[in-house]
Amino acid sequence: MNEKDYKPKQLLTKREKEVFELLVQDRTTKEIAEELFISEKTVRNHISNAMQKLGVKGRSQAVVELLRMGELKL
User: Which keywords accompany this UniProt record (predicted)?
Assistant: First the structure.
């Protein structure tokens, strides 16, 4: 494998990233669920899973960390 062919594994799943992109747009859990056609519980699970991966204790800490890592844009 060439060095330029190497792609680092993304930290978040596509869906987790979609949830956080909507979260930083000041959307509620209910609004995110409706937009993505999933349940509110599933939205909360995606947020929780991402927080666990990041080793943070809250949504706002997760957003700050994702911004710092370049995984999320404002």
Answer: Capsid protein, DNA-binding, Transcription, Transcription regulation, Virion
Give kind and range of the element (H or E) at residue 71: none
pTM: 0.85
CA distance 18 to 2: 30
Cα–Cα dist 63/40, whole Å = 19
Range list of H helices, the chain: 14-23, 29-36, 40-54, 59-69
- In whole angstroms, give the CA distance from residue 22 to residue 32: 6
Identify the structural domains of the chain with CATH numbers, from first to last.
11-69 (1.10.10.10)
The stretch 8-36 carries a mean pLDDT of 93
**Measured in whole angstroms, how far is the alpha carbon of residue 56 from the centre of its chain?**
13
